[in-house]
Amino acid sequence: MKTIKTFITIIFIFTIYNVNSQSQKITELEKNRVRLFSMEEFSNLSLWFYNELNEMKLTEDLENQYTSIFAMYTTRMSRLDDTDKGFTKEEIITKFKDLEGNLNNDINKILNQEQYSKHSEIMKVLSRAVLNKLEVKE
User: Whole-prediction pTM value?
Assistant: First the structure.
């Protein structure tokens, strides 16, 4: 019985340590995070994206696939200018465009031509918004 209590105590301690460690990592990531868009701009873009996505008329399964892929790449894109990355503006732009190309390739595999055309329109607007914030002349 004592062994079981010891084992449970050790698991409990490691669990607390792991949660605390993850919390510290998240706090560190947030300290390094640079916000390209204000909360209002981000809200407006999110609402616009939601409306555009609804116009694509995707099935529930396809929408889940689409948003999963989209979120994966946009999360990576959003971390490019974090202070801990140390990328120059040119490196950020290059990596952003690379991620955008990979996103489009992955999305192209799941959408039909009409849906992909709509996705391309969405990406042109989002890309232009990001590049404008980075003060890039197109």
Answer: 0.72
